[in-house]
Amino acid sequence: AHLGNPCWTMETAEVVSKNKNVYTDFSGILAFSERFKKAYYGSVKKQILELVAYCDTPRKLLFGTDFDLGKQEDYIEFLESFEEFSKTDMEYIRHKNAEKLFGI
To answer: Is residue 38 within 8 Å of 74, Cβ to Cβ?
Structure first.
């Protein structure tokens, strides 16, 4: 969970890339102060893109939120900021990856 943010994102990428049954999510990553929101979003977005590049796919990334650390709308807005992901990739991140993982 949480991509291993802030210190273990690449370690998470290593584990995810080498194990077909391991996924990660980005819940809990939007705990930020409003003052530094833009800078923080940029930093976390960079980490996510590095993880996805290392794994060579966004198909191991799950959408998630942490209710007390951020509003669901913030997470949706953050996800939609990824112009790097195709429409199909976004469908997988939003729900298809979880459906596959949990067999639902």
So the answer is: no
What does the alpha-carbon distance between residue 25 and residue 12 come to, in Å, rounded to a whole number?
Answer: 10
Whether the Cβ atoms of residue 27 and residue 66 lie closer than 8 Å to each other: yes
How confident is the prediction for the chain on average, in pLDDT? 88
**Residue 70 contacts by C-beta under 8 Å, 6 or more apart in sequence?**
28, 30, 31
Q: Is the peptide bond before 58 cis (omega within 30 degrees of 0)?
A: no
| pTM of the predicted structure, to 2 decimals | 0.86
**Does residue 60 carry a pLDDT above 90?**
yes
Q: Distance between CA 62 and CA 31 in Å, rounded?
A: 18
pLDDT for res 67: 64
* Residue showing tokens 């996800």: 79
